[in-house]
Write a structure and sequence with these properties.
The complex is a heterodimer. Chain A is an all-alpha fold. Helix content of chain A is 42%, strand content 0%. Chain A has two domains: 2-18 and 145-254, Cytochrome Bc1 Complex, Chain D, domain 2, CATH 1.10.760.10; 32-135, Cytochrome c-like domain (Cytochrome Bc1 Complex, Chain D, domain 2, Orthogonal Bundle), CATH 1.10.760. In chain A, helix 8 packs across helix 12 (239-254) and helix 11 crosses helix 12. Mean pLDDT of chain A is 89; it is low at 1-23. Chain B is α+β, with helices and mostly antiparallel strands. Chain B has two domains: 59-174 and 267-319, Immunoglobulins (Immunoglobulin-like), CATH 2.60.40; 179-264, Immunoglobulin-like (Sandwich), CATH 2.60.40. Helices cover 14% and strands 35% of the residues of chain B. In chain B, strands 1-19-18-6-16 form a five-stranded mixed beta sheet, with no helix packed on it. Chain B has a five-stranded mixed beta sheet with strand order 9-15-14-11-12. Chain B has a four-stranded mixed beta sheet with strand order 2-20-3-17. Chain B is globular, with a radius of gyration of 24 Å. Residues 1-108 and 173-177 of chain B have low confidence and may be disordered. Classes of the chains: A mainly alpha, B alpha+beta. At the A-B interface, helix 2, helix 3 and helix 4 of A face helix 1, helix 2, helix 3, strand 11 and strand 12 of B.
């Protein structure tokens, strides 16, 4: 238990700044009673999209169009997109808590209306759908603080990295999500459904949060189950380059406001 | 129920939550009495093992075909000489890193039984497939051909099939376990090798020789095992492969790039050479199930009586 408290404090410290500080204080122990309560919340709040068995086949999915990505997550087998962990890893509890709290703009409502304890309970419950959660111990990657305010030279350098690291092939030369692979419909998600690269000029549409650290996390971890790869290894030891790129991406939406 | 509904923050929802909630309410009411479609559809899952599990999803569609259990299995070194005229040497397979290659040079004395054999394909070999290159033709080439079925015309031996002893028990001499990482090399917008086999726990080493960025996206069923960007000039990336199964390797920037890595929990496997040969050592004596997988031809299985010592020869043929 003490271990988990330490992990949570660490995670909150890492991911702070999105209004969930202090969440660890109420995180209930992951036991049968917690999961039972989570199940009841799931059946009221999540089942119509994620389905009674967590397979992402709830009836509300009909409205999404059966052949359009993204489908509601299949918790039993699929990967998770919004993680603080390396590519291929499961998300941490904190990651799931953040997704449930923030929602996914355009696709899933925020459940900030549930109190924190209830959100932890439903997180405990959705983890029961995939036995891998019992076997694997996902560890968050380091998520540093930005080095300081963006500079023009840094942003200019970020633009060069954006081209050099191939972001444009999917997200387009100017970040509109209109790279040739995306426009031609060549990008597929893990269900084989066509998915487009995100329009990086619309900050509010970012699914995984839009603070500098949120974007840093998306780029380093990648979004598993989609073509968006992890760049953590490419930026290893190049902390400043990484932030130049992140600030360049942020500049794409600020210029237009 | 409604208490929770009211609490849902709908601020950023762009789509039709209203109807969804209505349906949801109806669904919630119904689900108390009737089993859901999901429950009905999902009822038939069974536990699959080894190769069978590995290729269950999502491609290629490989139905298990039972190879006729003929009397091709003979024991003794003479039989081996007869069935496998060409001795397999470590040099035959330049691209792949077969786990047993270290033993096939003949310098190491093997204590236990040895399984050797060939995988044959006598059917018509499809013409090479022309793949459209839609990106970076200066690096990838203007056209690209792939040969999913590669057969040695002289012997009908099928290359790049992977043979595995299913039950997998036995003792593996240390020399036989490849400790080297399994390479996934991006070169001229192709993966090298195209097919590879490795033991879980070993690293996959991803290398980019091209002056363009690739991403190496390895999936097992519908889970991402690894999706990393390998930028031009970047250092190789090493990651341990943790789970057994058939891993499909793709690059999303170049949609025509595809490869396979078969990962096993044990070292009792080998990949066929250009002449279709394989060799597996260290397997426990007794009745063992051998499975062979090929990218487009699917799966064959055979029961083999493995002797306590000596060599057993096994022949598979895709019809």
């Amino acid at each position: 238990m003490r271990f988990w408290i330490t992990v949570c404090i660490g995670a909150v410290a890492l991911l702070g700044g999105i209004g969930i500080d202090g969440a660890f204080a109420v995180k209930p122990e992951d036991n049968r009673a917690t999961r039972e309560k989570g199940k009841r919340i799931y059946e009221r709040s999540c089942i119509f999209c994620h389905g009674s068995e967590g397979k992402g086949d709830g009836p509300a999915g009909w409205y999404l169009g059966r052949y359009e990505a993204p489908r509601p997550r299949d918790f039993t087998t699929e990967s998770f997109k919004f993680r603080s962990t390396a590519s291929g890893e499961l998300p941490t509890d904190q990651d799931l808590f953040r997704t449930v709290t923030q929602g996914i703009p355009g696709y899933m409502p925020s459940f900030a209306g549930l109190n924190e304890e209830e959100r932890w309970q439903v997180v405990s419950y959705i983890k029961t759908f995939n036995p891998s959660f019992k076997e694997e111990k996902p560890q968050p990657l380091p998520l540093p603080l930005p080095p300081g305010p963006p500079t023009d030279a840094g942003i200019e350098h970020g633009r060069k990295l954006y081209m050099k690291y191939g972001c444009h092939s999917c997200h387009g030369d100017n970040g509109y999500g209109d790279g040739s692979e995306s426009l031609k419909g060549n990008l597929k998600d893990s269900r084989g459904l066509t998915i487009s690269a995100r329009n990086l000029t619309e900050r509010e549409s970012l699914k995984n949060g839009s603070t500098p650290r949120d974007i840093y996390r998306s780029v380093m971890t990648g979004l598993d189950g989609t073509p968006m790869p992890s760049f953590a290894d490419s930026f290893a030891g190049k902390e400043k380059d990484a932030w130049d790129l992140i600030y360049y991406i942020l500049s794409l939406s600020q210029d237009r406001r | 129920m409604w208490a929770y509904r009211k609490k849902i923050t709908m601020s950023r929802m762009k789509w039709i939550l209203g109807p969804a909630l209505l349906i949801g309410a109806a669904y919630g009411a119904l689900s108390d009495v009737a089993p859901s479609a999901a429950q009905q559809a999902g009822g038939t899952s069974r536990k699959a093992t080894g190769l069978e599990r590995a290729v269950a999803e999502p491609e290629p569609s490989a139905a298990i075909r039972q190879a006729p259990v003929t009397s091709t299995a003979k024991t003794g070194h003479d039989a081996m000489a007869e069935a496998v005229p060409q001795q397999k040497t470590a040099g035959v397979q330049p691209s792949a890193a077969p786990q047993n290659a270290g033993l096939s040079a003949g310098s190491v004395s093997v204590q236990g039984p040895v399984i050797v054999g060939r995988v044959l394909y006598k059917g018509s070999v499809p013409a090479p497939v022309q793949v459209e290159v839609n990106r970076d033709p200066d690096i990838c080439g203007a056209t690209m051909t792939t040969m999913p079925i590669s057969v040695d015309p002289a012997t009908h031996g099928l290359r790049n099939a992977i043979v595995h002893v299913e039950s997998g028990s036995g003792t593996m001499p240390v020399e036989g376990v490849a400790q080297t990482p399994a390479i996934v090399r991006n070169k001229q917008c192709r993966f090298f090798p195209h097919v590879g086999a490795m033991q879980a726990g070993n690293d996959a080493e991803i290398i980019n020789d091209d002056p363009v960025m690739h991403n190496t996206n390895m999936t097992f069923a519908n889970r991402t095992v690894l999706n990393v960007a390998v930028v031009a000039g970047g250092s190789p990336i090493k990651k341990p492969m943790k789970k057994a199964g058939l891993h499909v390797v793709k690059c999303n920037v170049h949609k025509f790039m595809q490869a396979y890595r078969m990962v096993f929990d044990d070292p009792f496997f080998d990949q066929t050479t250009e002449a279709g040969q394989f060799r597996i050592v260290g397997v426990a004596p007794g009745m063992q199930t051998l499975t062979v997988w090929h990218e487009t031809l699917g799966i064959l299985q055979k029961e083999v009586q493995v002797p306590a010592r000596g060599t057993v020869v096994v022949e598979f043929e895709y019809k």
